Amino acid sequence: MADLSDDLFDDLDAVVGAALDALAAVRDTDWDVPAPGLTWTCWEVVEHVADDLFAYAGQVALRTPQTETYVPFGYDSREGGPHLTITAEPERGNAGLLQVLEACGGFLSAVGRRAAPGMRGWHPYGVSDPGGFAAMGTVEVLVHVHDVADPLGVHWRPDEAVVARALDRLFPDVPRDAAAAWPTLLWATGRGDLPGERRRDTWRWDSSVR
User: Considering 46, 63, 154, 197, which has the largest number of Cβ atoms within 10 A of its Cβ?
Assistant: First the structure.
């Protein structure tokens, strides 16, 4: 019988694939434009997502679990940009950045699927298991592609079932309507409104194992 976390890794693979397809359609446009609501450019947002996927893979790749802090990969940042361990070579353009995103998504999926279900890794929002890190990666892709969709002209409407499973894993206390998982995730991450609920100025998921 397959572990229940298999669905979360399948969702991660699907979301990364969908993001690659959506962004590839606009890879010949200028990504060095501001992402609304953030201090980063669209290029930096996509690079940040790749870096998160890589970092999450690192948390569940150890023989001895690290549950006190992040694995100490070194990082750097351009002025005003995100802190990054993984960067893409600018001269390779948007197509090269998409390869980096695809590779990092593959790292998390492959390492997480191989990890024992009892493996644990540190995250400031809760020590998590491999499936939890897959769900975190899924949410990173979902919301950050949303962040760049308007300025890049990307159509981005994720699969409601995928979004619902991410909500179930990481946002167990938010209001739930199975028909409106995507608007709920946008509200839960401070990116949208939800009827009857105050817009969130701050937010965090719960990645702890339940």
Answer: 46
Q: State residue 2's pLDDT score.
A: 39
What tokens does 90 get?
């600018």
The owner of tokens 């001895």 is 64
What one-letter code names the amino acid at 52?
A: D
pLDDT in tens, 172-192: 999 887 669 999 999 999 999
84 pairs with which residues across the strands? 76
CA distances 188 to 65, 79, 129, Å, are 29, 29, 22
| Residue 101, CA distances (Å) to 60, 83, 91, 116, 189 in order | 19, 16, 16, 25, 22
C-beta of residue 135 within 8 angstroms of C-beta of residue 169: yes
> What's the rounded Cα separation, in Å, for the pair 178 and 130?
25
> How far is 136 from 53, CA to CA, in rounded Å?
9
Over residues 1-16, the pLDDT tens digits come to 234 578 999 999 999 9
Q: Do 169 and 176 form a contact (C-beta atoms < 8 A)?
A: no
d(CA 58, CA 62): 7
Q: What residues have CB less than 8 Å from 58, skipping those under 6 apart? A: 70, 71, 73
The token pair at 203 is 């937010």
Distance, CA of 136 to chain centre: 6
**Spatial separation of the C-alpha atoms in residues 103 and 37, rounded to whole Å:** 27
Identify the three-state secondary structure at position 84. Answer: strand
